[in-house]
Amino acid sequence: MKAVRLHDYHKQPIVEEVPDPVLSGPLDVIVRIGGAGVCRTDLHIIEGQWAEAMGPRLPYTLGHENAGWVHAVGGGVTNVEVGDAVILHPQPACGLCLACREGRDMACAAAAFPGVSDHDGGMAEYLRTTARACVKLDPATDPADVAALADAGLTAYHAVRKAVPLLPPGSTAVVQGAGGLGHIGIQVLAALTATKIVVVDRDPAALALAARLGADTTVRADGNQVSAVLDVTSGRGAEVVFDFVAEQGAENDAWDMTAAGGSLFVVGYGGELRIPTVAAVASEKNVIGNMVGTYRDLVELMVLAESGKVNLHTRRYPLDAAAEALDDLALNRIRGRAILVPQA
């Protein structure tokens, strides 16, 4: 089969032939990929930023946002059958450790992370995963339409879902960055809360999209974005700020936009949040990190997606055009998410 393989950090991955995956355990599932999302994390992996944290042995296959059709199942699989359309939770969990028993499968002691850690991902024609990762889709759903919800959508949903109790009617939520994750976060906020949604981005096209998706107010990131958010909130700041950028100074803007006693949900990464300890103490602000989401989060997100309340804006590429898709993402030429479609 064809697969997008990373051989060296700081160099583009290449599309090459590799052996098809095979079943090796009773709960294994082989999925024929219908769509694989291209994520900014893939760029960070190529740059070597995850080399020490996750330690993938090169070469390996990229791709952690995957959906498709069940191609083969192990003898112990009962929740899906050959032919089922599925979206895959990006981090298959064991189901047995304490974290899994508590529903925190992202903290599973034995979890794998295909496409990020030392396991081949889904930028390929086929992927081996486990039954525990599979969420069945409506047969009418095209896997390529929802593939990026497996990580980008799941991450945005997980952050918003945690913040829902903090966002009653009359509150304000700021979404900083209306790109691949942020445009999903806006829709989830609109679906789950009655909060006032303020979106900050430097791109006018992104702000126009945000307005169509449910933003009540949009703010151009032109150097005066913090003041603009404070003006919108009568000087208080927002009860919750979702920072989908978190680099190049945006992370510190997000802190300044957060109201005293409010919560900053850090979703993007790459920068460094510097907070004087006295400011943290005096303001009683909370800083909350977010890493993907749980299996239940993904199930709930798919309900919103299949009911039309969350929609991905995508651009499709054939698998052979993976390098083009990665370049377009790196150069901000994509509005929404890039999707590799092996069968295209």
TrEMBL record:
Domain of life of the source: Bacteria
PROSITE patterns cross-referenced by the UniProt entry: ADH_ZINC
Cofactor(s) the protein needs: Zn(2+)
Alphabetized Gene3D superfamilies for the sequence: Medium-chain alcohol dehydrogenases, catalytic domain (3.90.180.10), NAD(P)-binding Rossmann-like Domain (3.40.50.720)
Entry annotated with the keyword Ligase: no
InterPro entries in alphabetical order: ADH-like_C, ADH-like_N, ADH_Zn_CS, ER, GroES-like_sf, NAD(P)-bd_dom_sf, Zn_alcohol_dh
SMART domains named in the record: PKS_ER
Enoyl reductase (ER) domain residues: 16-340
Pfam families (UniProt xref): ADH_N (PF08240), ADH_zinc_N (PF00107)
Keywords per UniProt: Metal-binding, Oxidoreductase, Zinc
Protein family per UniProt: Belongs to the zinc-containing alcohol dehydrogenase family.
Name of the protein described by the UniProt record: Alcohol dehydrogenase
Source organism phylogeny: Bacteria, Bacillati, Actinomycetota, Actinomycetes, Pseudonocardiales
Gene that encodes the chain: adh
